Amino acid sequence: MTKLVAVDALCGFVANALEAQGVPSEDAASVAELMVEADIYGYRTHGVFRLRQYLARLNGGGCNPTPTVCVVQETVATGLIDGDNGLGHLAMSAARDLAIKKANDVGIGWVGVRGGNHAGPLALYVRPQAENGLLGMAAAVGSANHVPPFGGSDLLIGTNPIAFSAPAEGPDPFIFDMATTVAAMGKIKTLIQQGEPMPEGWMVGKDGQPLTDPTRKSEGFLLPIGGPKGFGLSVAIGMLAGVLNGAAFGSDVIDFTSDTTSKTNTGQFVMALNPAAFGLGDDFGHEAARIFAEMRASEPLPGHDPVRLPGDGKTAAAAEVRSTGVTLKPALRRDLDLLADEYGFAAL
Predict the structure, then answer these.
(1) Domain 1-60+314-348 part of CATH 1.10.1530.10
(2) What is the C-alpha to C-alpha distance for residues 333 and 135, in angstroms, rounded to an integer?
(3) Are strands 210-211 and 203-205 parallel, antiparallel or unpaired?
(4) I want to staple 43 with a disulfide (CB 3.0 to 4.6 A). Which of 76, 121, 188, 298 is the partner?
């Protein structure tokens, strides 16, 4: 049976868990808020579900509980942030805020991150742009390699996600957040936790045959979206989020789940773009809403639901969750109770 937990209570629980591993209270509260926000917007594989992994890395010494997040290089339109191997949410939120400031000042802001860690869903770092009339983009090198180069057999690429946002008149901005694999590894981990099978087409074994048992994920490969196209996109993200920032890519990537002691040097970037720099301003949101309305009005194919745009309904759904509470599935609730007992902090 699923459980509803008040947003404030869940934030407090996560913050207490992080503080128990030496994270300063202000940082713990900031990270907890972002983790719970992921659940509020429906990104459940990248929200509170990840707490066990974060605590393991803090406890193992692989993640710095007291980082000094700082800008190490900057121009009027670009910046590079060093996350000092702290919790990834801290560096990415700093990158997002700096990118937005630069976009408002000079039209565009592009901020890279090195020395980061897993930071939850990229949607957290592009939604604020759209809510403030800007376009946003973010991408990251995955926190473990689960994909071989197309046609190869060595695991050298991660899920390498990318997200994009745009303002539109109406309740919902355009928010698009995806992995460059058919499924994110987080989805497979939730299937394991809940004891459910994996759909065919997500992974193949080393014999090239479909793999549907999620507990055997280490025996196979995640599949890229669109075959060689997804492979190419994931490499491009690796260049922009990894190599360009002096962060890990390829064989340098550390598996942040199996290795809790090594620095990951995760690479990411956040971009903000101001339509005013192109003479549009608020007209962009008006035009986007008009085009989106045309798309939603398209007659559905037989057997299909009405057309939806990425982000549709998210604002109202999030407001409902803030009011009623976050839904926790039984397996996750049990794990959170176990974590409180294992690490010695107050249970929910």
Answers:
(1) yes
(2) 36
(3) antiparallel
(4) 121
